[in-house]
Design goal:
heterodimer, A: about 800 residues, alpha/beta, N-terminal domain of TfIIb, Rossmann fold, Dimethylsulfoxide Reductase, domain 2, 4 domains, seven-stranded mixed β-sheet, 28 helices, globular, disordered N terminus, B: about 250 residues, mainly alpha, two-stranded antiparallel sheet, about 30% helix, about 0% strand, disordered C terminus
């Protein structure tokens, strides 16, 4: 009977799935294309629909936004979008609600005598211009992977081209920097070679310290829904705690924090021990690398024999000893990678990136795919996911990091500076030749008193919340707030843990209140138009930057002029004459996004990240770069980079070409990197591992999602996940509010045993979305030597009952 | 049957398993066997099948008398569909209809939003959800809707619980969001082209390929179809409502 039922359910499921799949491919036929009904129901009338990518994670789902009477009233997944095929996650469905929290910031606020009081925009611009003019070299810009492309582009042009100051960095430093250095070290150029199409073709999906069921739900369901259609897909969860993704995995490999490097080395060892590495692919397309002394991003080339010697230590038994993952599971991984008849996709996100050995583990996972030849065929891909909607499109591609110029150029390379100066029509030598401060250094210098060499006096924060997300907050945020000589400017849409300490708060427009473009995790550039008005006196971030630039220009600040004396952000009317886009009344006379994007496009060719003209993105549901114009004038996107069958930059007849190879010979680099212990491990005083992360319902610091009723009700505050035995040993009951301490800070949270996730003995987990409980008071600011990305995933902590001495 | 001495929880598990299996069988039977429903008469104020409808029983009773034990139980299997018909044959009651719509709206931020789950969830995989929601059931005053879009396996991706299942911090228990959001309301019934015409579907059919999820026997009173034996809904009810398929740009 049970079997009958199962079969029945399965058949029903398959029938429905087939129906859904058919609908996807022939959507226009199956789903009425809203031929508007002649006599529509009053409740449905007057809703107009337009496209936009989701505001939240890096998946980049395409939405249809329903607007009525100037307000967003509904959101739906776009059935014709490749990315999400009509599906969204609970955050995406409710993204429209994020615009309508009652406490939206609607006017500029200046801190006076400890209180934030409303001021005019004119006054706000003067204050910023005053701060910059007083100390142009001590001014820093802290931005975001949530910046639209135009916003990020304008900000870095303003800093690097205008102020000749490279102290601009995005929060992507805390998020994606190790993925970037990993791609650079392996392929010589940033961003994944594969794309989401791999998820439709893989036989094995490996999640490396990754919980896509909660963090990238639409991508994860793209894989597990294939099972509902009867396909056989193995999911392997390599993690430090059980999550919702574990529930869907056939194999759960639990490793001790930091030892993912040993697991990856174990795979490399097995490929060689079993003689199952892909000799043809490696001999033709790969070379070997190891760390140099002193360490450098591109290390030193080594021979295959040296590589072999390096990984020889990582026998399955040795890996088990280091990592706790059973030797038989390491053999299982080795055998899977050794097979030529299956396709393997690896996914990772913060687990591998927020790691003091982040670059190392990134390169090792690339190494496992390259050595085994599981690369460049649909379904065979090492793919890093992004946490923010435009970590790729803006933070990385536009070059908002402190060492970059647009299009993968480096500020320390004279040739690259010259190219930027030419495109921007700047006098030669305008761009400063030293890289600026990365995020941690920026805030360290802002927190340090000027007398002690703290040379950052003002930070302007846009579209991010460092007061909640910087690690070790008591060191990297609080002292700057307390120092009366330091100034904090924050552009945001709601009061946050950062705005509450800001000297100047600027109210911003968000999402469909402005034009925008994002770039998702699979190199897809997406465009949308403004659909509703921003509330009160809130204004676009890109306008804010341009308006400050103009204020400086009008005060005679030379940097805001190009070499012909024109304004840095000069926009010409059709038929001649300048549009005063710095004047809010005229900002929308032209599409500033289009103007900035088409200027930025000129930068995109150097690294073969070719972008199409703006108008092509208006017509498309995103396009994956390189987007190359065809003979017939149409624009073609690229799904699989470096692969001869798809990438137009691979010469005809070649099956692969790594045309930005760090060794300039078309080869990708297979790295050997040893396991090294973490900077802080549990000890007698702080006996537990503390890991931090996210939950399905909230996006990052919850600024938006905590104002969305269904999301907040489901997940109203932070908690600490703890193993039952650890709780019992401390006489702690499920639900009890306990104290959590590290060497850096303390918070109190309720215990949730076997809740959303389940950490093993000796380890606890706390989500970071709750601004009333800042777990980043406890985290460590130790960081990766190459990417400068801090490690939020492991430090030593202890838990105690409240009322008992914390030293007991 | 559980062994003597099986702990209470063990018996409960066995009982629940039996209940699930039974519901599945009902689903199988009602889903595949031809209906016995005959010609439609003029609507009556009486409940024509009242005698066939078993009295509702509490969970406590169910535990004492497992399926198949007593006379009420033996009739239960075949009565499910009948019970549903009995309800929908009542005279239209605007108040009930409005209540059904209000209850429906209370779980959605706007028309088209995935409804929230009115009970605690812990589910990682779909199995826990599908135990009740694969075929759905109505029991002891509770209603589990059958999934309208089978084939998706990560239920909690879109549906979250309407309340937290862990300790709330002080000040958070009553905390709700202050918002000016006004979601698009659901249409109150589809367009009827002329008197007697089958009403058009008033909502998007996207991910709602199984009409009986809301309009079948487990649906709320007044949302149920008066003719559950007809299985090809879109044959007569044109799907015109809802949102755009593709935006022009």
């Amino acid at each position: 009977m049970e079997l009958d039922r199962r079969n029945f359910v399965k058949l029903a499921a398959m029938a429905a799935a087939t129906a859904a799949a058919n609908r996807t491919t022939t959507a226009s036929a199956a789903v009425p294309n809203l031929a508007p009904d002649p006599t529509p129901d009053p409740a449905l009338s007057g809703v107009s629909w337009d496209k936009a990518p989701c505001r939240f994670c890096g998946t980049g789902c395409h939405l249809q936004v329903g607007v009525k009477d100037g307000r967003v009233v509904a959101v739906a997944g776009d059935p014709e979008a490749d990315v999400n095929r009509g599906l969204l996650c609970v955050k995406g469905y409710h993204v429209g609600l994020a615009l309508y929290g009652q406490d939206r910031l609607t006017q500029p606020l200046l801190k006076q005598n400890g209180r934030q009081v409303p001021i005019s925009w004119d006054r706000a611009l003067d204050i910023i211009a005053d701060r910059i003019q007083a100390d142009p070299k001590g001014f820093a810009f802290y931005g975001s992977g949530q910046w639209t492309i135009a916003e990020g582009y304008a900000a870095q042009k303003f800093m690097k081209g205008g102020l000749a100051n490279n102290h601009i960095d995005p929060n992507a430093r805390l998020c994606m920097a190790s993925a970037v250095t990993g791609f650079l070290a392996a392929y010589g150029v940033d961003e994944p070679a594969g794309c989401y199409d791999d998820l439709d073709a893989c036989d094995v999906l490996i999640n490396w310290g990754n919980n896509p069921a909660e963090m990238h739900p639409v991508l994860f369901s793209r894989v597990i829904d294939r099972r509902s259609r009867g396909e056989d897909i193995q999911i392997i969860d390599i993690s430090t705690r059980r999550t919702r993704s574990t529930a869907h995995a056939q194999h759960y490999l639990e490793f001790k924090p930091q030892t993912d490097l040993a697991v990856a080395n174990g795979i490399l060892h097995q490929l060689i021990a079993n003689d199952s590495w892909d000799k043809a692919f490696v001999e033709k397309h790969c070379a070997f690398k190891a760390d140099s002394d002193p360490p450098a991003l591109h290390g030193k080339s080594i021979s295959f024999d040296e590589f072999k010697q390096g990984v020889a230590e990582y026998t399955p038994e040795r890996v088990e000893e280091i990592s706790g993952v059973p030797a038989r599971d390491i053999r299982m991984l080795g055998e899977l990678f050794g097979r030529r008849d299956i396709r393997i996709t690896s996914l990772w996100c913060m687990g591998m990136n927020q790691h003091t050995r982040g670059t190392a583990i990134n390169t090792l996972v690339h190494a496992a795919h390259l050595l085994s030849g599981h690369f460049g065929k649909p379904g065979d891909a090492p793919t890093s996911l992004t946490g923010q909607p435009s970590a790729c499109g803006t933070a990385r591609e536009v070059g908002t990091l402190s060492h970059l110029l647009p299009g993968g150029r480096l500020v320390e390379k004279a040739e690259h500076r010259k190219q930027a100066e030419e495109i921007w029509n700047l006098p030669e030598g305008r761009i400063h030749d030293k890289k600026g401060y990365h995020t941690l250094k920026m805030f360290e210098q802002w927190c340090k008193p000027a007398a002690d060499g703290g040379d950052i006096s003002t930070v302007w924060v846009q579209v991010t919340n460092p007061g909640q997300t910087l690690p070790n907050r008591h060191k990297l945020f609080d002292p700057g707030v307390a120092d009366p000589d330091k100034f904090l400017i924050v552009s945001d849409v709601y009061p946050t843990a950062t705005t509450r300490d800001a000297d100047l708060v600027l109210p911003s427009a968000m999402w469909v209140e402005k034009n925008g473009m994002f770039g998702n995790s699979e190199r897809r550039t997406q465009q949308w138009f403004k659909q509703v008005d921003p509330p009160g006196d809130s204004r676009d971030d890109v306008w804010q930057t341009i308006a400050v630039a103009r204020r400086l220009h009008d005060r005679g600040f030379e940097g805001m002029k190009d070499k012909d004396g024109g304004f840095l952000f000069r926009v010409e009317k059709e038929g001649g004459g300048e549009v005063p886009i710095w004047d809010w009344k005229h900002f929308r006379d032209v599409n500033v996004d289009k103007y900035l994007f088409d200027e930025y496009r000129a930068f995109s060719r150097l690294k073969h990240k070719d972008l199409a003209p703006y108008d092509e993105y208006v017509k498309a549901r995103g396009l994956r770069w390189p987007v190359v114009q065809q003979q017939d004038g149409s624009w073609r996107e690229t799904r699989f980079r470096f692969a001869g069958f798809d990438d137009p930059y691979v010469a005809k007849g070649k099956d692969f070409d790594f045309y930005h190879s760090p060794t300039n010979d078309g080869r990708a680099q297979i790295w050997f990197r040893p396991y090294e212990p973490p900077p802080e491990s549990p000890d007698a005083e702080y006996p537990l591992w503390l890991c931090t992360g996210r939950v399905l319902e909230h996006w990052h610091t919850g600024t938006m999602t905590m104002r969305v009723s269904p999301l907040r009700r489901a997940m109203p505050n932070a908690y600490v996940e703890m193993h039952r035995d650890d709780a019992r040993a401390l006489s702690i009951a499920d639900g009890e509010i306990v104290r959590i301490e590290s060497r850096r800070g303390t918070i109190e949270l309720p215990v949730w045993i076997e809740g959303r996730g389940a950490p093993p003995r000796g380890s606890i987990f706390v989500p970071f979305f709750d601004e009333s409980r800042l777990i980043n008071d406890l985290t460590l600011d130790a960081h990766d030597p190459f990417s400068k990305q801090p490690d939020y995933k492991k430090c030593a902590a202890r838990v105690s009952r409240i009322g008992e001495s914390s030293n007991a | 049957m559980p062994e003597p001495g099986t702990p209470f929880s063990g018996r409960l598990v066995a009982l629940l398993a039996a209940a699930v299996a039974a519901v599945a069988l009902i689903g199988l039977v009602t889903g595949t066997s031809p209906s016995t429903y005959r010609a439609k008469r003029a609507p009556s104020r009486e409940r024509p099948n009242a005698g066939l409808v078993p009295p509702a029983r509490s969970h406590a009773e169910l535990e004492r008398r497992p399926w198949g034990d007593g006379p009420a139980d033996s009739s239960w299997n075949e009565s499910r569909e009948v019970a549903a018909r009995a309800e929908v044959r009542e005279e239209p009651d605007e108040k009930t209809a409005a209540l059904a719509m209000a209850q429906r709206a209370a779980r959605r931020a706007f028309d088209g939003a995935p409804p929230v789950i009115p009970h605690p969830v812990r589910a990682g995989g779909a199995a826990e959800c599908l135990a009740c929601h694969a075929e759905g059931f109505a029991l002891a005053g509770l209603r589990a809707s059958p999934v309208p879009h089978a084939g998706y396996a990560s239920c909690t991706q879109c549906h979250v619980s309407s309340s937290a299942s862990f300790t709330l911090l002080e000040g958070n228990a009553a905390a709700d969001v202050e918002t000016s959001w006004r979601g698009q309301p659901s249409a109150n019934g589809g367009i009827v082209a002329y008197p007697g015409a089958p009403p058009a579907v008033s909502h998007s059919t996207w991910m709602r390929e199984r009409c009986e999820s809301c309009h079948g026997p487990e649906g709320r009173a007044k949302l149920q179809t008066p003719h559950p034996d007809r299985r090809s809904c879109l044959q007569c009810h044109p799907a015109t409502g809802g949102r755009a398929g593709a935006s022009s740009r």
